[in-house]
């Protein structure tokens, strides 16, 4: 359903001050503190029974120093782990924990918890049949899924999917695309699973039976894996390998994808694109493919880096071919290709430490990010990147040794980790976001019409909502200005569903502003006028304790952007301490106020810098000095901010002269820092404490004073979080 709605009154109700606030949405990504995962069946090579050749393990990375627990409640397994910031650790299971029992409910769900965000990768390793996956935390799981696996077309049959329960009493409805025993193709059936329980369905049919397109819905969030015991890719190729990936819920599907060829492969990779809605049109490098209905998929072989786009939400999966297909090192692997809207700006990722002779990072990035991405603190040279057609993105393939890698940028970018050995391969995304970008049904933009002054900033907002009117975070909205001030940009919606775009109108005249998310387009209008002055009729101050309240009035305003509040100590330099927005153009008298808080003892001057929309300004000086006197009692205030990282401010008051010290102690009572110590005059004080050299934790700061026949001691608690 497509709607074009302009709700100016709604935006006014929120207040236009909201337009200038660009809040960051809470992350919805593959980092988390709780996971429910499992291992679908790998192909058990005959004669391979030792743990050194056949095992399952978790690779855990983090941006923090943290610890956690890995448990399999159904079999009584539990082990702790710890991981240092920007490094990894391995939890290898002492027994085989993969699931082989088809169409039954078992107790092999693996529960991973941690104190801080971690990224978890699963590796199911065997001789010539190995596969890996990126685990998704419980906070981004969904209730609607489509299975992507790969057809049975070789010596080994066994395309499959695995479900892991996260909440007791979850009812799951499954509509399979292939008949498996009593489960009839196209006929829904229900199962009920509890937290930590698993359900596996293996397709034992011959060529070309395939569970891809199977739909799964549930009453509570669940984990879903698509897999094949050992797939031959494509049909007719020999040499098989285990493939597996944890699947994104349908709400996280997208419409724009970038693909990068896998290193070492010479005949291209295979891709599947599955549609979640009818009438889905797919373009590959601008070439239209056959339309898809809901739950249908197309499969293509791509030799070069490509762009895949669609008019409706889809999921894209990349596959490496069997080694017989191109004679290259390695065998099939399977990994999700996140849409570019689900890219992240930072990853701490890891390769398996053993078992693979080559490992690579495939990185896709908007062209603006080229030269801005670091790998372990070193910039990846811009010259190493190759453009992906006219998509506006580029890619690079980076060979790496086994280990852990930290990637960062000011932009969102994509990254895949993969590797090959003789007749086997593994691969997974380094990470992904899971914003509910597939749920959008409406955008609401405003203000629809407005007038402003040349040289000032104009901000517009677009709100993205789902079918129930709930806000959607993480949606990229593109903005375009046409008219007197051409230009544009984009931003992502915050937790309240708002994307904000601001620009300066340097030229008088009219602008048309287009707010776009694919087929959803809203049109806004802006008129730019020449600025006029403001008349100030009063400007006074009132001192209360260590606060100075300023009050001023205007008899009328023409194009008034607002007032910078500036302060100086007597004969000192002027410093901006605040801003109060003006009322634009009005013939009514307006009153303003601003409170300058927590000042030290002393004498201060104030002035207003009135600014119009063209950037012109005029100063208004306060006629009197504001005097902050001596406090009447000792005080040590709570630091702010608290918790903090890495610095915080501490205020205290001394009513008499004497010797004072302000010290910081750790949780064990050891001295961590001395902020100040010595003879001090009476007065109000503010001091900054920089804890860059201290680890996270709880600390105590204590003020000790003696002098003028008086003494004072007080201790306060604060928290440093890095």
What would you report as the Rg, rounded to the nearest angstrom? 31 Å
Helix percent band: under 10%
Provide mean pLDDT, rounded. 91
The total number of structural domains is 4
**Which shape, going by the Cα principal axes?**
globular
Distance between the termini: 44 Å
Largest sheet: 8 strands, antiparallel
Beta percentage is: over 45%
Brief rundown of the structure:
The protein is mainly beta and 722 residues long. Helix content is 2%, strand content 55%. It starts with a strand and ends with a strand.
How would you explain this protein's 3D organization?
It is built from two helices and 53 strands. Strands 7, 10, 11, 12, 13, 14, 15 and 16 form an eight-stranded antiparallel sheet that branches. Strands 24, 25, 26, 27, 28, 29, 30 and 31 form an eight-stranded antiparallel sheet that branches. 2% of the residues lie in helices and 55% in strands. The longest helix has 7 residues, at 8-14. With 722 residues, it is mostly beta strands. It starts with a strand and ends with a strand. The protein folds into four domains: 32-437, no CATH class; 450-527, Immunoglobulin-like; 534-628, Immunoglobulins (Immunoglobulin-like), CATH 2.60.40.10; 635-720, Immunoglobulin-like (Sandwich), CATH 2.60.40.2550.
């Amino acid at each position: 359903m497509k709607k074009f709605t302009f709700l100016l009154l709604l935006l006014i109700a929120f207040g236009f001050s909201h337009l200038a606030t660009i809040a960051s949405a809470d992350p919805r990504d593959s980092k988390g503190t709780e996971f429910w995962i499992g291992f679908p069946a790998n192909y058990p090579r005959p004669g391979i029974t030792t743990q050194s050749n056949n095992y399952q393990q978790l690779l855990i990375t983090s941006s923090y120093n943290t610890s956690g627990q890995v448990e399999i409640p159904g079999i009584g397994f539990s082990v702790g782990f710890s991981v240092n910031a920007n490094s990894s650790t391995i939890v290898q299971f002492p027994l085989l924990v993969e699931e082989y029992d088809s169409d039954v409910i078992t107790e092999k769900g693996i529960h991973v918890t941690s104190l801080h965000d971690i990224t978890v990768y699963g590796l199911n390793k065997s001789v010539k049949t190995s596969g890996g996956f990126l685990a998704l935390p419980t906070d981004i799981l969904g209730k609607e899924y489509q299975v992507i696996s790969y057809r049975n077309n070789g010596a080994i049959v066994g395309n499959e999917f695995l479900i892991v329960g996260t909440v007791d009493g979850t009812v799951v409805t499954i509509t399979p695309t292939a008949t498996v025993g009593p489960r009839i193709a196209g006929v829904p059936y229900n199962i009920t699973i509890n937290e930590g329980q698993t359900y596996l369905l293996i397709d034992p049919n011959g060529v070309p039976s395939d569970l891809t397109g199977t739909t799964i819905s549930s009453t509570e969030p669940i984990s879903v894996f698509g897999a094949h015991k050992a797939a031959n890719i494509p049909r007719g190729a020999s040499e098989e390998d285990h493939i597996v990936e944890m699947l994104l819920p349908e709400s996280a599907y997208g419409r724009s994808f970038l693909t990068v060829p896998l290193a070492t492969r010479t005949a291209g990779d295979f891709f599947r694109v599955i549609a979640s809605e009818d009438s889905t049109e797919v373009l590959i490098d601008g070439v239209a493919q056959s339309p898809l209905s809901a739950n249908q998929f197309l499969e293509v072989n791509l030799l070069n880096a490509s762009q895949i786009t669609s008019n409706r939400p889809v999921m894209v999966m990349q596959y490496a071919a069997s080694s017989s297909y191109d004679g290259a090192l390695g065998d099939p692997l399977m990994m999700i290709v996140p849409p570019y809207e689900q890219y992240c700006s930072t990853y701490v990722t890891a390769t398996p430490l053993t078992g693979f002779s080559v490992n690579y990072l495939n990185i896709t990035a908007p062209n603006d990010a080229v030269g801005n991405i670091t790998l372990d603190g070193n910039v990846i040279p811009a010259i190493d990147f190759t453009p992906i057609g006219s998509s506006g993105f580029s890619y690079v393939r980076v060979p790496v040794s086994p280990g852990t890698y930290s990637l960062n940028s000011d932009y969102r970018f994509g990254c895949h980790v993969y590797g090959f050995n003789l007749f086997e391969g593994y691969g997974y995304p380094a990470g992904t976001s899971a914003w509910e970008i597939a749920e959008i049904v409406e955008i609401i933009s405003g203000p629809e019409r407005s007038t402003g002054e040349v040289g000032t900033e104009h901000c517009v907002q677009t709100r993205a909502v789902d079918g129930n009117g709930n806000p959607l975070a993480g949606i990229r909205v593109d903005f375009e200005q046409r008219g007197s001030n051409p230009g544009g940009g984009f931003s992502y919606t915050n937790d309240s569903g708002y994307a904000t775009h601001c620009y300066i109108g340097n030229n008088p005249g009219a602008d048309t502003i287009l707010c776009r998310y694919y087929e959803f387009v809203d049109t806004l209008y802006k008129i730019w006028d020449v600025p006029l002055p403001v008349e100030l009729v009063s400007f006074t101050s009132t001192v209360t304790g260590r606060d100075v309240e300023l009050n001023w009035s205007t008899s009328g305003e023409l194009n008034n952007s607002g007032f910078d509040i500036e302060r100086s100590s007597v004969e000192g330099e002027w410093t901006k301490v605040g801003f109060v927005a003006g009322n634009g153009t009005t013939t009514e008298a307006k009153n303003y106020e601003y409170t300058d808080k927590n000042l030290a003892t002393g004498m201060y001057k104030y002035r207003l810098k009135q600014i119009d929309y063209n950037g012109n300004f005029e100063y208004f000086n306060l006629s009197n000095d504001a005097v902050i006197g001596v406090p009447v009692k000792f005080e040590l205030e709570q630091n702010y901010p608290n918790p903090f990282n890495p610095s915080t401010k501490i205020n205290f008051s001394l009513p008499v002269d004497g010797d004072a010290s302000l010290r910081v102690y750790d949780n064990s009572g050891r001295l961590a820092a001395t902020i100040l110590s010595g003879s001090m005059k009476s007065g109000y004080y503010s001091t900054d404490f920089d804890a860059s050299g201290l680890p996270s934790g709880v600390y105590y700061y204590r003020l000790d004073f003696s002098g003028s026949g008086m003494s004072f001691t007080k201790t306060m608690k604060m928290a440093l979080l890095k």
